[in-house]
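REQUEST FORM: STRUCTURE PREDICTION
Request ID: SP-0412
Submitted by: Lab K.M.
Chain count: 1
Length (residues): 128
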Amino acid sequence: QVQLVESGGDLVQPGGSLRLSCAASGFTLDYYPIGWFRQAPGKEREGVSCISSSDNSTYYADSVKGRFTISRDNAKNTVYLQMNSLKPEDTAVYYCAPCQTVVAGTSAHIVRADSGSWGLGTQVTVPS
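STATUS: Completed
RESULT:
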């Protein structure tokens, strides 16, 4: 069964850090760009970051640039999202999925690359 499972979410104080994991089963992550997406209460889901499959190029939404770092460990079939300097506005359920990126100037627009179902996600809460 092809599946991506998110983990690592928690409640963290403003300014704190978390590392999210996206573990793949049933397929090899190496060949796919994989991204992180998030959905806050009452808001639409948005693309946060994407890492390419070819050269591990990374892309970030303007809202997280300089604070979040995406990486992949192909040996573990896992993609990570290191989140530093967390803010209350980072509170959301975070999901991973295949991604594609449209770059316009210095900004990246990250969208889901397939039409699959979303996983359960992992909750990140940063209280105000």
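NOTES: The first strand starts at residue 3 and ends at 7.
Reviewed by: T.R.
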